[in-house]
Amino acid sequence: MDDLSSWLPIGIIISAKIITHLILDLIVIRGALLDRLILIGHSLGGQITGLVGKYFYNMTGLKLPRIIALDPAGPLFNLRPEEERLNKHDADIVEVIHTDGRILGFKAATGTIDFFLNGGSDQPGCWNINFFNITTYTDLIYCGHRRAYQYFVEAILNPRDFIATECSDWVSYKAGKCDKNKKVSMGDITVNAQGNFYLETIT
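-> structure tokens emitted (203 positions)
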């Protein structure tokens, strides 16, 4: 595994190893139950969760039960092979929420279940920014990327408002050409469905 991750900045590798050992300490010393564990990360943290899953498996022969990656980072990772980034094998269930695949997020499906909000690339309202106000430029860049954790929190609080439908792509979803019987709530942290799911939000 160290050979596979040697191309990564050392800080990412160290962070992943620290988290892995923390999980082991929680289980071995504190008596935490592995099947109650959910590892959640946003952006680069989303990619780190995958690395933790790999390290944990190499050290124990066991998989983490669930990873939730919130718009995992795309730059540095979009062109990497599956074994060198977050992938569906890093935990029993790898749930991925895509909101900014066009700029900062990972573009393609990479989990056991992937949610593409508003297509997964651009989010409503993120481009309605006054370009003459220099303080909003960072909002312009990060708006869609940040929506991943904002939507996730809202989905946990209001699971009935974030019902996603399995579909082949965004165009088919918009055209109503999906299997309407295959729906799941993005706020259900026990979901075990597999596939690509789409949903549309107002804001």
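The longest helix spans residues 137-157.
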